[in-house]
Amino acid sequence: MIALTAKEPSIWLKEIILENFMSYEYARIPLKRGLNLISGPNGAGKSSILLAISVALGQIYTERSKRLRDLIRRGEEIARITLVFDNKETNGRRPISFSDGDTFMLSRYLRKDGNYWWEADYKQISYEEVARLFKGFGLDPNNMLIIMHQNTMERFCLTSPQEKLKLLEEAVGFSAYREKVIEAKNRLESIISEDESISELLGRAKESLGYWKEMHEKYLLREELVERRRRLKREAIWARVIKQEAALRLLEERLNVKRYALESNLAELEETKEKIKIWQGKLDSWKVNSKESFYELLHLEKEATRFESLIEHLKEDERIFSELQKKKEVEEIGKRLKEAIKRKEELKKEINKVQSELGGIERSLESNLDAYISYRVKEEVLRFKRDMLEADIKTIKAEMEHVNQKLADLAPMIKKAGERIETERKQSEIENEMSLVGAKIEALGDIPEETEEIFSNYSKLFEELKAKSEIVAANKREGLRELEARKKIWRKAVTDLLDSINSSFQKILACIGASGLARLVGIEDDDIENAGLELFVGFRGSPPVLFDYYTQSGGEKTASIMAFLLSIQQLLRSPFRAVDEFDLHMDPRNREEIYKMMISSMKESECLLITPSQLTVTDPSVHVIVVQKTYGKSGVREVTP
Hints:
The protein is α+β, with helices and mostly antiparallel strands. 55% of the residues lie in helices and 15% in strands. It has helices at 46-57, 127-135, 152-158, 161-172, 175-207, 233-323, 327-417, 427-432, 451-511, 554-567, 588-601; strands spanning 12-21, 24-30, 35-39, 78-86, 103-111, 116-120, 123-125, 147-148, 220-223, 436-439, 514-521, 532-539, 545-546, 578-579, 607-611, 623-630, 633-639. Helix 5 (175-207) packs antiparallel against helix 9 (451-511).
């Protein structure tokens, strides 16, 4: 059985159109306000109608098939499901504001090649837009409390208390309470983490008070990625483009730096060559001066040797003539001897002077040669640096060509991506929509040598950390107060919700000769993740026991679930309610009672019931549709009660 309802419907489903979907070749299923009853034998195609609605609304899980293409009628290439909604103005506003028509058509296309898409009023829209549209009406096709497929009741029996409570919160629109508690809890955990980090830094600062040494704070960046179903393609493409553009800008900056360095290198190399020429000229001048002085010294020493020999010879002649008592010759020789000795002394002085000049030239040679060698070495180093810079420039240009090629390869994708999206997020962050959680550890510079300056800098850092610690402590206290306040609001909202549900739940169970209640569990621990919902039911006078897959019989489980669904009927945000085979394993009495209660509770709602059972239809407001299958094709026809 399927029941499709809404408390105060902002939109209502007028018609379902199936084309090549499962056993339907073509069928139009009209619906009216009030109760719509669809009946027919097993295998006729009744459950396919609910499956079609769910697929059109974007349901992720399908009971009948894991692959959507398997839902296409055999032998066909494409199937289409169309939901036609009433979109007439109410108080000057349409339920679906972006549609101008009195009806709104949502179509889902399925192809054998695995290509699936949606159209809204014949314009293609994305899954995200479909999900966002119906989320605004409170309709989640993946919540089994809103849409229960065939065999989903058994899945509901097996769900944990925690999952049951989450399903209930989502169905009645209470998810925001839970989200606010989790948000406050995450924020508090972040503050606590920051407080622990600052406390550790303060502890280290106290221990290092007497002997400050170099410290560096490192950044601890942790990211947690939560996989999401899909990634926005346009932003992902632009993220890749922005990454390549940033790489290109970096390469251009590096290229400019290298070019500037090369220009400076070449200028310095030319200057060094000029210096080498100058010092080469000085060395050449030294060679000339050295050679001239050397030849002059050689001439003087030769002349001095000649005079020494002359002096010795004259002295010998003077001795001989003295022995011969030749006075006149002795006087002549003595005169010549004095002149020779005088000339010898003059030559000695000239030799000393030339030797001194040669010594100066030799000394200047060492400094000149050192300067010349230094500039020659500098020239070779500059040549080596020039070659390295030219090689770096060539490498950078090659890398730029590579990046430009990547950007060129992205051009077709950029064209499809549309208007540019500026984003600083990483691609993985975009794909998983994760918040980047970072813990920043402040880094200190080098410790100065001056003790007073070291102490001053350290004291300043310590005071800043202390002040920050006080701020974080205050934030932690405020976070705790906020978390407790939000938990209190959540507890009260959920408790009041269960009180309201239990009032209806117990009355409905009493109508089928049973008793029971819905109870919250796990809220004592103050941990929202452990909070859950448990159902207790008792039949035929037995005290209520825990409802689960193994304790109750098949009919008791089905009756209990239907009683619970009816008890939350008036609280649902969704304009739709769907349950398949509501009367599975029920005895005839319970089936009729549940059926009557459904009719009674849905007088003001749009309802769709599907059952293979024989139900008495006496209410003229019930719209009856019969499903039959002939020669492999399902068809529908309207019947007047």
